Amino acid sequence: MAEHLLDLTGKVACVTGASAGLGQRAAVALAAAGAQVVGVARRTEALAAWADATGGRAANVAADLSQRDQIAQIAAEISTPFGAPDIIVHAAGINTRETADDVTPEGWDVTMNLNLAAPFFLTQALVPAMKAKGWGRVVNFASLQTTRAFPGGIAYGASKAGIGQLTRAMAEAWSKHGINANAIGPGFFPTELTGPVFADPERAARNAAQTCIGRNGELHDIDGPLLFLCSDASAYVTGQILMVDGGFTAK
Question: What amino acid positions are annotated as catalytic residues?
Answer without folding.
Answer: 156
